[in-house]
């Protein structure tokens, strides 16, 4: 790994795609101007609808559409690596989309696509979520080779499945999310720090962070954690940027003094 400055961009997305794209552009520019070279937007950054089916009306074919055009243009304009949170892409089921995280290089080229594998299901009697109703799951983990190291991509609910993060020799995991306020208070930070500790890598986790116009509440607390599990930067609530330097020396040190990855049996 080579050291790099990174930023997790926290939003409170609305049902209006144009509004959200303008906010994302502004945050990307702010982070890039401050020196960030690897930037990540949250899950559903382009739309948080009043209904789960609202994203069907703005789905795009892979490689085309206003959401993807904005991501490519922003990466190219600012000369950064950009993880485009998630984008609703066309699937082979007209009633569902693929919830995809797209990675763009500084030339504005999409160099990787990860379709969310684990789909959130939750029902505590007062809150109910069933992503499988409107999302078609992916089936393939994705790791991207970059000039600064190997980057793995996961999305939100994937965080609860540690086996997804194992065995990929990754330096940085990027996990866009829209954790609910309920589950976030209970599990968000502890799970992110656990994934960083057990894989001895950095974790960049941009989230949705507050009360949305639709009344939905997301937990926020976008953060960057290091391989020792220390939180290097955090934005609790509201729109903002969590930025930090990801030092190659810290990965080297942690893996040298506690070579747990070499001690794995299974």
What is the straight-line distance between the termini?
25 Å
The biggest beta sheet is recorded as: 7 strands, mixed
Q: What is the residue-mean pLDDT, rounded to a whole number?
A: 97
Continuous helix count: 4
Beta-strand content estimate? 25-35%
Supply the number of structural domains.
1
CATH architecture: 4-Layer Sandwich
Question: How would you sum up the global shape?
Answer: globular
Helix content: 10-25%
CATH class: Alpha Beta
Structural class: alpha/beta
What is the CATH homologous superfamily assignment?
A: Carbon-nitrogen hydrolase
- Strand element count: 15
CATH topology: Nitrilase/N-carbamoyl-D-aminoacid amidohydrolase
**Radius of gyration, CA atoms, in whole angstroms:** 17 Å
Stretches with pLDDT under 50, minimum 5 residues: none
Taken in chain order, the helices and strands follow as: EHEHEEEEEEEEEHEEEEH
GO molecular function: hydrolase activity, acting on carbon-nitrogen (but not peptide) bonds, in linear amides
Protein name: Nitrilase
Keywords: Hydrolase
Write the layout of secondary structure elements.
Elements: E1 4-10, H1 17-33, E2 38-40, H2 66-78, E3 81-83, E4 87-90, E5 97-104, E6 110-115, E7 121-123, E8 128-130, E9 142-146, E10 149-153, E11 172-174, H3 181-199, E12 202-205, E13 222-225, E14 231-235, E15 240-246, H4 248-257
Helix pairs in contact: 1-2
